[in-house]
Amino acid sequence: MGRKWRNWGLPVVALALLATGCESTPDAPGAGAKPAGAPTVPVARVCAEPAAGPAKAPAGAVTVDPAKVGDLAAKTRKSPPDTTFWLRPGKHRLAPNRYAQVIPKKGNRYLGAPGAVLDGRGTNQYAFGGTARDVTIRHLTVQRFVAPPDEGVVNHDSADGWTIEHATIQHNSGAGLMAGARQRVRASCLRENGQYGMNAYKAEGGISGLVVEGNEIVGNNTDDWERRRKGCGCTGGIKFWAVDGADVRGNWVHDNRGTGLWADTNNNDFRIEGNVLEANDGAALIYETSYNAVIRKNTIRRNNWVEGRRYADRGDNFPFATVYVSESGGEPRVEARTDKIEIHRNVLENNWSGITLWENADRFCNSPANTSSGDCTLLVRNTDRCARPAIAKAPLYADCRWKTQRVDIHGNRFVLDKSVVDCTVRCDRMAVLANYGTYPKWSPYQGERVAEAITREQHNRWHDNAYVGPWKFVVHDPSRVLDAGQWQGEPYRQDAGSTFRARDGG
Questions:
Q1: How far apart (Å, rounded) are the C-alpha atoms in residues 366 and 3?
Q2: What are the residues whose beta carbons fall under 8 Å from the beta carbon of 319, sequence distance 6 or more?
Q3: N or C: lower Cβ tally within 10 Å for the chain?
Q4: How does DSSP classify residue 470?
């Protein structure tokens, strides 16, 4: 649950694990000279250049007529599972009541001809719902549905095994798309939806094996929910909740209002690679109260200008970052493809600040300051165990708290030109810090215990990076701002093997 605030003026949650990078094509926004070592995967320009669907009905397919209102839903009801439907060119409509929707059967396939659109007309809440597995939607535009907040238009009920390919899901309220286990979202345009492009949330059963590949995720959160529900943490190009195993690769995530990619609460085993994340108003990536991830070969640029500047103008000295790791870390006891958070071989260029590793000393299981509702860590399923006196001793002292630990940041290129970002202060930070623990009165984490731990005891390490520009480094708490020499020297000894240059010589 996103940026929450307490009276000490520091954020309780939010991770900006800014994801992966691809080099943009020459005419893509923000394109310019390629930094040395930049990834070379082209961006996914699928909104402007969508792949065309079949111009004729495939053999055995049921043809759907746009002139007949409700034809798609009616033919779905009458047909058996594993039926293929071909939607003719034109604007397809459902019955004119808010709950009218298509309820697929197991294995159904929905193929759009060139120009096929399923239009909710600002009346229907949902396009495709129900619990049928292994449904496929290809080459179809789905638009103007009005799902309520936190609900979605396509795969409304988070059914498992769906495949969404070469689709355009745009101009809807709520989330354009929900997610179930083993879902594949490929080469699709998730554009200008009111809350999320996709909300990867399932109330029961959980989500595993999620693949998000080669999509363009642009301009979402048009309804600006973080302002309507201040501090709700309920927006993003994509929001992930309790997803165990996700591959997020080759996407172009740009110009979203707020955060680009946001993994929030007990996610695990993410690979975020080969993406371009750029020009999002907030962080490119937040990895929050979650575990075990690889974030590599991403291009991350021009993010967080709006939100970072907003807080700087208020005089807030917290290091708001483009990649924000909040109460998240590597945990060998949670099964995954890695046992750490590894951030490497990324290019971060002209963002508002860089990477912040943060831990809120007052946020743990059973604490009133835990903004993740009643959730506990993946190491302690019963929140009630995290109470006096047991929480003050091993193993609960460690296991009742989401820890920012075992984060390995290496082989990245960090470029900052303040004249490009148009800033003078607080846009130039790397950070590893926590707040002074105060709450609740029975907390075993009061004082500087957590700040000392995240800074010097939890194996968080920068090394072998390349810096260009006037970078500063925040350690322990917001008041300790270091130059590169102090950062590399005793007692912090960070960024061994790294290089620092005032300007790019390229």
A1: 19
A2: 353, 356, 426, 429, 430, 431, 433, 474, 478
A3: C
A4: -
Q: Would you mind telling me the total number of residues written for the chain in this entry? A: 506
Other CB atoms within a 10 A radius of the CB of residue 147 amount to: 25
Q: Virtual CA dihedral for 365, 369, 371, 376, nearest 10 degrees? A: 0
Q: Which two tokens stand for residue 24?
A: 């943009």
* Distances in whole angstroms, Cα of residue 399 to Cα of each of 325, 375, 394, 454, 471: 18, 13, 8, 15, 34
Cα–Cα distance between 365 and 241 in angstroms, integer? Answer: 17
Backbone φ and ψ of 50, nearest 5°: -70, 145
Task: Name the pairing type of β-strands 136-138 and 163-165.
Answer: parallel
CB burial of 416-430 (b: ≥16 within 10 Å; e: otherwise) equals beeeebebeebbbbb
Nearest-angstrom CA–CA distance, 462 and 485: 14
17/330 Cα distance (integer angstroms): 13
- How far apart CA 444 and CA 361 sit, in angstroms, is 10
- Identify the DSSP state of 392: G
Structure tokens, 112: 């759009």
Q: E strand or H helix at 191, and its extent? A: strand 189-191
Residue type present at position 87: L
Q: Closest Cα to residue 142, out of 182, 197, 213? A: 197
Which residues lie closer than 8 Å to 25 by C-beta, 6 or more apart?
Answer: 31, 42, 43, 45
At 451, is the secondary structure helix, strand, or coil? helix
DSSP per-residue string spanning 226-276: HHHTTT----EEEEE-SEEEEEEES-EEES-SS-SEEEESS-EEEEEES-E
Q: What is the pLDDT along the chain (506 residues), one digit of tens a residue?
A: 333 322 222 332 222 332 333 333 333 333 333 434 445 557 889 999 999 999 999 999 999 999 999 999 999 999 999 999 999 999 999 999 999 999 999 999 999 999 999 999 999 999 999 999 999 999 999 999 999 999 999 999 999 999 999 999 999 999 999 999 999 999 999 999 999 999 999 988 889 999 999 999 999 999 999 888 888 889 999 999 999 999 999 999 999 999 999 999 999 999 999 999 999 999 999 999 999 999 999 999 999 999 999 999 999 999 999 999 999 999 999 999 999 999 999 999 999 999 999 999 999 999 988 876 678 999 998 899 999 999 999 999 999 999 999 999 999 999 999 999 999 889 999 999 999 999 999 999 999 999 999 999 999 999 999 999 999 999 999 999 999 999 999 999 999 999 999 987 65
Distances in Å between the alpha carbon of 261 and those of 354, 389, 391, 451, 453? 16, 38, 33, 27, 27
Do residues 163 and 133 make contact, with C-beta atoms less than 8 angstroms apart? no
